[in-house]
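User: Structure please.
Assistant: Input sequence and predicted structure:
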Amino acid sequence: MLQFTVELHAFRSALASTKPHVSNDKEDPVGRSIDCTIRPNRELLVTATNGMTAAIARVPIEEESFFGELGQFTMTPEIAGTIIDMFAPDKEDWNVQLEVTVTFTQEQRPKPEEDITVATIKVRRLGQLFGGDQLTVTTPVQSNKHLPRLWATIGRGAQRNRAMLPPTRFDLKRISVFRAAQTTYGDPLTVCALTNNAGSLLVLCGHYFIGMVHADRVELENKDKDNYENLKEHWATELPTPFAVVS
């Protein structure tokens, strides 16, 4: 069992900013899951990735409230949306806390299927009369074995200094999903290269959100080069550019 207390705004912000990054493929239960992992520093790391973009949000946990072992659970974007809607804060609710309790059971499946772990997630609003608003949902745990590598990749990217971004081509839809992070946290987005000459982008929003966008580097050695060079030449000639400035 896991039990911990988080600040309402921090938990809702983490879910709202990562939810747009789950996969749209309903046949991919792992990709359609939001992962919630408790780190050794008693911090909740909320992660979602669809393979093309990734989002990671930090949620501080009240140290005195933590009970149980370090662990991980997941939820669907529908469950996250229900939590966001149900625990919407009032205008003066700046110090409201949520108590989250997660219990696990093993559900046996007929062979040759593997048994699954099912999590029962109970979210309760503290500080209200009669026990406060609460929500209880049950959902299978969808473990993504690639998350540690994703965290490491983004962490190393954040440590690099002034990585150069080569000519890069990306789909606007991959960038637009980060709008939720800026709306939720209220900070502007900072975009930089993930690694030198890779094309992928690192997206930062304040101290509690970081993400990544997979993009396509323009390979100048192949047919992309002509299109890239032609585009540059086209705009260089189309835009009015004075040859000299007379003072």
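DSSP finds six helices and 14 strands in the chain.
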